[in-house]
Amino acid sequence: MKKIKNFVLAFATVCLTAGLASCEKEKEVEKIVEKPVEVIKEVEVPVEVPQDNNWSRYQSIVTADVLSQKKHDKAILLVAFGSTWQQAFNAFDATIDAYKAAFTDYDVFLSYSSAICINRAAAGENEADGAEIRNYYAPPFWLNAFADKEVQYGEIVVQSLQVIPGEEYTRVINYIKDFANNANGDLDDDYLANVTLKLGVPLLQSKENDVPLVAKELNALYSEKVKEGVVAFMGHGNPDSYDTYKANVRYTQLEEALQKYSKYYYVGTVDMMDNFKTNVYARMQKNGIKSGKVFCHPLMSIDGDHGHNDMAGDDDENWDGMKFTPNEEGEVEDTSWKMYFHHLGYECNDDTMIELGLLELPTIRQVWMNHTQDAINGEPLDYYHSKNPE
């Protein structure tokens, strides 16, 4: 018998490892809790976790899925943040197919790192808009399945589908480290000592290589659009307190690289200080672009909630008929990019929304796939240390 505080700590570890996160803003997950958590008095309870809990059930489902699909001794696990939109599901399906075609010696699987995205996709959050009910699972379930005694892949490549090496990428690294170090003590240590682990980095990992390459490919896709007007890419970004590795700078670097092709390219975010849509507008004004078309395009792996709502939605509650009122950070809340630029006199409407996630663009998806190949060709991952950007 152990005290409940040990049980609570063990349960908390399980929840965090499972990828407990908000579907769009993990930092605000506490907002969904309607009642304060009560402090439980310390009492004697058994430490064993029941075998019929959801964790065990999900693990059984994932392990059975891996067993049914296992054809090779090597596996690639794609890690996306997640979404509940059918367009995103289709993008993920196409990405899996592309990986299977390119990496024929590997079994390929995809996981969500956001628990809320997992739960909402399973609940059919956007079923009314044509989305299927989909079951996705967090990376630890897949990694544990890969180590199951009936599976035991000899090589595991984890590929981050993040755009920048920021907060979410840090979580991907930690999944691998916890797995390799047998954080829960329930895996075969001999197997872990011999399995080869590798990590594919995010899209814009490198300023020197990835940023100019992605800029080149985006310009190849949208060089005709940029002749008609502004092409404004909307990334996610991290608030300053979550700007792991100072990765937000990749958005600024990408805009600089794109503007070598045209001053009509811009890159803003929904969550990066000093790079909201208001800041994009200020840069456009400074460059003398005070009218004309504004094409908006998600700079995210998929076109999900942010693309459908923050970018292309009809929300303009902040517009009082004459002006917008920015918040203390300088952002105009409760207003989509489409409606913001529309009210400021630009031609920005449904017809100028380019609602495609980056995984839907084969030449951009290939950059992620290049990172996977680089990981396969490189040294095994030193999982005792983080694989940080330089």
Overview in brief:
With 390 residues, the chain is α/β, with parallel strands linked by helices.
Features:
alpha/beta; elongated; 12% strand; 3-stranded parallel sheet; 9 strands; 4-stranded parallel sheet; 390 residues
Description of the structure:
It is built from 14 helices and 9 strands. The protein has helices at 4-17, 54-69, 86-102, 115-122, 139-146, 167-180, 189-194, 210-222, 225-228, 249-258, 277-286, 305-311, 337-343, 362-377; strands at 2-3, 44-45, 74-80, 107-112, 155-160, 196-200, 229-235, 265-269, 293-298. It has a 4-stranded parallel β-sheet with strand order 4-3-5-6, with helices on both faces. A 3-stranded parallel β-sheet has the order 8-7-9. Strands 1-2 form a two-stranded antiparallel sheet. Helix 3 links the parallel strand 3 and strand 4 (107-112). Helix 2 crosses helix 5 and helix 5 packs parallel to helix 6 (167-180). The protein is elongated and about 65 Å long.
